[in-house]
Amino acid sequence: MKQEKNFIVKGNICYSEGPEKIRTTEQGFAVCLDGVSQGVFPRIPEEFQNLPVLDFGQNLIIPGLTDLHIHAPQYGFRSLGMDLELLEWLNTRTFPEEEKYADEEYAREGYSIFAEDLKMGATTRVCAFGTIHRRSTEILMDCLEETGLISRVGKVNMDRNSSPGLTEESPRKSLEETLLWLEETEGRYENVSPILTPRFVPSCSDELLKGLGEIGMEKGLPVQSHLSENQGEIRMVKELCPWSAFYGDVYDRFGLFGGENPAIMAHCVWSSEEEMERMKERGVFVAHCAQSNANLASGIAPVRRYMDLGLKVGLGSDVAGGVHTSIFRGMADAIMASKLRWRLVDDSLKPLTVEEAFYLGTRGGGAFFGKVGSLEKGFEFDAVVMDDSILRSPRTLTLAERLERMIYLSESCRVEAKFVAGRRIF
């Protein structure tokens, strides 16, 4: 065992035991051995007495947060163009910016800023889109590797319905570049690994999707993409693929919809019952991006329905559709959006609770990476130490109340320390 991964952290510990239960331990001890949690205890058990103790005083200690969906090249223009709908926003804001990542120096500057800022937040695991540019995507992987965060990074595939500068010349060329990217990065990183990334069906021909599915099966790679985000997008998919039963059926036809290889589908705002059932059958992860869905006027995803059906659900920041990388903000926005869905759309779907939102941002999304997102025994030891002392109150607050306030007021709090798979990041 590596000595630096054997330690105990002491503080006010909060973690999910399930969607409806947050376990809190005041001045508790979370034990890490070889990067894996041994559990949380009110006192140090006899067998761990010789481990070093890192005492974080009155700070809150929680599992690291997982961001299932973020666009790294969009980080530099977040909060711009938020008065537009999705497809117009892509054409006027997103695609022109992503074209700039053909320039490797621009990519290095942009991705360095993105990675450095992400490192200092509460996110410990992330699934990120790059651009179509192979070398720039490798630069993104280099930058994220240096942070110590565990990341899945994708070279984006697009061979139709985009700007000229972001349209790969043919399905064959797109697949060749993807294979070369995989070859050049194989075995190069400890913390970063590839994920296949067809942007979405409107930008990928059937031939390209078929080839990506074959690569995924051959190499055992997961997939990330977008699904049923916007009604105009859904109509476009039906026009392009009239043979499909529904949007997700296109991915499924080409082996890109979960099953043997895990898949993340972002948004799922307008998924039909048939699509939901297929997602459940295939074990697809839904990346719920509540703020982006509001900013781009996409709609309100029925997250309660997904949870009731037993789908796998986590949270995504979806920068720059979302303007914050904070998954705490994602939790608060998920609760708010679910209230609007309940009040304005379907009063049979009760709003999310704080406990459920916290679960989605920790264990829910963390499950994509394995046994991740809790401090229970057997989970990889991802943890963040949060100083919430700036949130003053005349009241005496329970740990659960402090956690709830921090979810809503996290921008005022400080990440004091951060651990990923037992490695201290800072």
From TrEMBL:
Residue span, Amidohydrolase-related domain: 61-424
Needed cofactors: Zn(2+)
Assigned keywords, A-Z: Hydrolase, Metal-binding, Zinc
A GO term, aspect molecular function: guanine deaminase activity
Pfam families: Amidohydro_1
Gene Ontology terms: cellular component: cytosol
Keyword Nucleotide-binding included in the entry's annotation: no
Domain of life: Bacteria
Single GO BP term: guanine metabolic process
SUPFAM superfamilies the record matches: Composite domain of metallo-dependent hydrolases, Metallo-dependent hydrolases
PANTHER family xref list: GUANINE DEAMINASE (PTHR11271)
Protein name: Amidohydrolase family protein
Organism listed in the record: Candidatus Enterocloster faecavium
